[in-house]
Amino acid sequence: MATEQASIIGRDTVRVDGPRKVTGVAQYTSDFHFPGMLYAVPVGATIANGKITKLDTAPAENMPGVHSILHRGNIGKIFRSIPGPGFSGVCEERRPPFEDDVVRYYGQYIALAVAETFETAKAAADAVRATYAAEKANVDPQLVADDEPDEVMTTFGPRKRLDSQRGDPDAAFGEAPVKLDYTYVTPFETHNPLEPHSTTAVWEGQRLTLYESSQGVVNLRSVLAQMFGLPIEQVRVITKFVGSGFGSKLWPWTLCPLAAAAARQVGKPVRLVLPRKMMFHAVGHRPLTQQRVRLGATREGKLISLHHDYIYTRSMLDAHHEDCGEATPFQYSVPNLRVSFGRAKRNIGGGADMRGPGRVPGLYATESALNELAHQLKLDPVQLRILNEPKIDESSGLQFSSRHLLECFQLGSEKFGWSKRNPAVGSMKRAGLTLGWGMAGCSWVAARFSAAANVQLRDDGTCRVASATQDIGTGTYTILAQLASERTGIPLDKVEVELGDTSLPEGPLSGGSIATGSVVNAVFAAADEAIGMLKMVAISTSGSPFVNHKPDELEFKDGKVFLKTGGNSLPFADLLQRAKLRLVTGNGQSAATFGDPNPKFSTQSFGCHFAEVTWQPEIARLRVSRVVTVIDAGKIINTLAGRNQIQGAVVMGVGMALLERTEYDPQNGAPINSSLADYLVAVNADAPAVEVHFLDYPDKEINQVGARGIGEIGLAGIAAAITDAVYHATGVRVRELPVKIEDLLT
Ligand code: MOS
User: Fold this and answer.
1) Which of 120, 193, 653, 692 could form a disulfide with 65, with the two C-beta atoms 3.0–4.6 Å apart?
2) Within a 13 Å sphere around the CA of 610, how many CA atoms are in the beta-carbon half?
3) pLDDT score of 3 more than 50
4) What's the average model confidence in pLDDT over 282-309?
5) Helix/strand/coil for 123
6) Of residues 107, 39, 10, 95, the one with CA closest to residue 662
7) HSE of 409 in the Cβ direction (CA atoms, 13 Å)?
8) pLDDT grade for 746, boundaries at 50, 70 and 90
């Protein structure tokens, strides 16, 4: 094993797949080509509520180059899917495409044009005429919880609407000397990965291969097997590169079975790449949330009570749970607490996980409320949080496996220069600009999904590591290479990584920022097994210098075998060649901790953001100029990729605070700003200077390296830090995201 000094873990490591990307060799889903392949373009409903009364496909069918127009009458049987063990059978919109004539949201697929070229398919899709019996669509952004029982069904099973409760929150709030009661709103947001959703279906007899831009090939395979009534081994999903997903590609959407059913029907491979406009319809969005937060406190700033009651939107079809209260019960110490939720159905496509689902909108609300309480108490917001630092996870009574939030606050304050803050509104100036400073804490779940990996050591001195996980742009290829290199001492450039294929050992979802933490033990165990086999070869191959020794007398380090007592070493490639072996191999597995009903610890990552905005009241220009973020996520395996993840998330946070919002037209229920021109995301010109610091406390509860996940935590809390900075600069408290210039024109 590599020595401490030379370890590849915890270092800036450039992407091993970088050259493949910049030279165009990397194959994204729509880069796979097949003889005779046809192109499909869906027809989306142009109403959001009602029935299809007539579908006129004849003009489209008669266009040259059109193969067929598929619809309810000719698509063939597609079954529904249901959750299975682990993360299998998971999807948000269970209704198979074209199952009935009912339209429940704008853009719901009602037909599919299949043609020889994409352009022809697009023209044919445009030529399909639907007649509807339309009803009024409900896309109302004002939410009142639907009348539902105390326990409701969600994507992952039944769930009590009372998330968490302790003490007597109502009485404690009633008697609290200092109180606050505000409602915070986060808008519908739509994922905008650079690569649109893309799927190519290929049938060979009763075997289906789906090339898909997916964050979870193993789960997707299980869903497809159910929907087409196939044994799991007859379905294969391949995802070599993903142009990001942000959660929209975590669970399968209806375009996957649609492409597969079309390919089955026409007897040729079919490719379906969504036009950008359709990215706003049927592949998920972050639900709108309306969160009432009530805080009770002593005059000194000790929290007495916390109510977090939230409502979010859901579609007519899905059961996505937007878990805004996920962090509320343990983020800070408070004896009396209630967290509860309600849902409001709307005529919109399925809601979905979007980077930091639940906890990101949730922490925006609770961290904003804390900032407002600090202002009310005339307390420094950092001090208020220090005053309410818990000793344990007060919701479960468990110790935290590792919590260093106070150190995050301290380091962040220092790096940002927080002690120079004058809390008076509009009091801080620089170069003619008014400055606003704000801060917030954050956290994110840490756990493992189950993972399996295979490692091969080969006679040319190379190593291959394989697992059916995905790299969604976050650096998983590099992480797997680093882990294999760390355990074998084989240099990175001699490590080959294979992922994104369900024919490999089952790997984790790229979701919840959990993939990295999940693969560590599996890769190490696989490497150890391969090394064990190598030692057996060393003692049993004639001509080997280690014949007649025992395996445990041998050491394997830096790719060489030698006796622990010293003496000559032998590169493993030489040994394999002497033994006439191409390779030795090992498998490794690691079990899930996610969802463990009896955990020993509360496992979370923590952090904080300090944000600076500049404000020019004369021209109403608001900019986020500077952010310092400190993250406590255990051991960071790749500090370069880790920093990039946090920087990207902070920039996305600028979008969340100031720009992003999907607007649904109250007349027809269509998302109006459904293009990259009209849906505003933060771009380079909006990006502040982002300084990222990591604490370095390995968390061995998660894996042998002590690495917790990283990524989503960078988006948690940042909007609350920015909106507090906006208040500090302008004196305007905005509680509905995004902050708009017109909010600030007082
Ligand atoms: Mo992330 S929203 O868990 O893909």
Assistant:
1) 120
2) 24
3) no
4) 98
5) helix
6) 107
7) 20
8) confident
User: Catalytic: 712?
Assistant: yes
Three-class SS of residue 473? coil
| Distance from C-alpha of 326 to C-alpha of 362, rounded to nearest angstrom | 7
Amino acid residing at 135:
E
| Pair 323, 353: CB distance under 8 Å | no
The answer to whether the beta carbons of residues 88 and 166 sit under 8 Å apart is no
Residue with tokens 């399909």: 128
Out of 353, 470, 472, 516, mutate this one to test ligand 1's pocket (max ligand atoms within 8 Å of CB): namely: 353
Burial class of residue 685 (count of CB atoms within 10 Å of its CB; 0-12, 13-18, 19+): exposed
Cα distance between residue 240 and residue 500, in whole Å:
5
- Catalytic member of 151, 691, 712, 736: 712
Task: Report the pLDDT value the prediction gives residue 4, as an integer from 0 to 100.
Answer: 47
Average of per-residue pLDDT across 112-126: 98
CA of 492 to the centre of ligand 1 (A): 28
Instruction: Quote the ligand 1 centre to 710 CA distance (angstroms).
Output: 11
Res. 5 pLDDT band, cuts 50 70 90: low
Dihedral sign of CA atoms 445, 448, 450, 451 in order:
positive
What distances in angstroms separate CA 605 from CA 325, 698, 709, one per listed residue? 16, 11, 8
Neighbours of 597 (CB within 10 A): 4
Torsions phi, psi for 308 (to 5 deg): -130, 100
CA distance 641 to 131: 51
Integer angstrom CA distances of residue 181 from 305, 316, 374 = 11, 31, 14
Q: Which residues line ligand 1 (CB under 6 A)?
A: 215, 245, 247, 250, 353-355, 357, 511-512
Q: Mean pLDDT score of the chain, rounded to an integer? A: 97
Q: Give the E-state strand segments of 446-567 in sequence order.
A: 451-458, 463-467, 495-499, 554-557, 560-563
Q: 85: which residues sit within 8 A by CB, 6+ positions away?
A: none
Q: What is the pTM of this model?
A: 0.97
